[in-house]
Amino acid sequence: MPSNIEWTDETWNPVTGCTRVSPGCDHCYMYSLYPRLKGMGVSGYEFSPDKVQLVPNRLDIPLTWQKPRFVFVNSMSDVFHPHVPFEFVYRVFYVMREAARRSGHIFQVLTKRPGRAVAWWRRYVQFFPDGWPANIWIGTSVESQKYAPRLTVLARLPADVRFVSAEPLLERLNLAQWLEAGDLQWVIVGGESGWGARPMNLDWVRDLRDQTNNANVPFFLKQLGGVRDKQGGETAIVDGRLWREMPGME
Predict the structure, then answer these.
(1) What is residue 244's three-state secondary structure?
(2) pLDDT at 250 over 70
(3) Pairing label, strands 53-54, 15-16
(4) How remote is the C-alpha of 85 from its chain's centroid?
């Protein structure tokens, strides 16, 4: 479905539900949005938010899209959650590969479990004779320095575009070692929003912007965050400008 997430055009959820793995998950929007979808009777949201559910009837949806678009995969879950069988993950990747070939979509896969992504790839690489599909970007979330080692694991995946989502950004981050090693091709930053939102210091944003600029890596500031106003879109301004760089931009 069309998305209001600034760095994508569409969301596609062949899996719903998730479980928390680190402090960045504490106020995840999925937990507030899920009950509303359940109350509306939307398929795939019949249970509780922490119940991971496969929704195979959504698998072929991207094959029906003709106009190229950016697609955020599993905005309401994590395709590499341990309750998602590897065979189903392969079905998701098969659809992404075929949809990209037909219509040029770019799929953005974001996980907090890069280790399971590496394990899946090692088992299924034989089904990808041309290597990791170029139109599938893979990223992981890093909200604080403690979880930055997820990037070392992510780097084991041979994707053309590996990215980090530093959202919610909870403290100053030093990503220099991964940026300088060429492990990252995109950095997304965002403040937390909604009830209980933890504040983001703009100096943390500036620091990450400077790190990425020094490494010639695209930098995308999604939102500043806030309890009542997420300060996204045209209001996510730091030092007088929007920061919406993406891989492939001149």
Answers:
(1) strand
(2) no
(3) antiparallel
(4) 20
Residue 1 pLDDT exceeds 80 = no
Q: Report residue 221: phi and psi, to 5°.
A: -95, 110
Query: Which residues 6+ apart lie within 8 Å of 248 measured at CB?
Result: none
pLDDT of residue 143: 98
Strands 241-242 and 237-238, how do they pair? antiparallel
> What is the distance between the alpha carbons of residues 50 and 62, in angstroms, rounded to a whole number?
26
Which residue type does 6 have? Answer: E
Q: Measure Cα distances from 12 to 19, 78, 113, 119, 203 in Å.
A: 19, 11, 19, 23, 34
Decide: residue 57, CB within 10 A, 0-12 exposed, 13-18 middle, 19+ buried. exposed
**pTM, to two decimals:** 0.96
Token couple for 23: 């402090």
What does the pLDDT look like over 131-148, one tens digit per residue? 999 999 999 999 999 999
Q: Are 174 and 211 in contact (CB under 8 A)?
A: yes
Tokens of 89: 């993950």
Q: Which of 155, 77, 78, 75 is nearest to 118 (CA)?
A: 155
The identity of residue 93, as a single letter, is F
Tokens representing 17 are 């539900």
Q: Which amino acid is at 9?
A: D
pLDDT at 168 over 70: yes
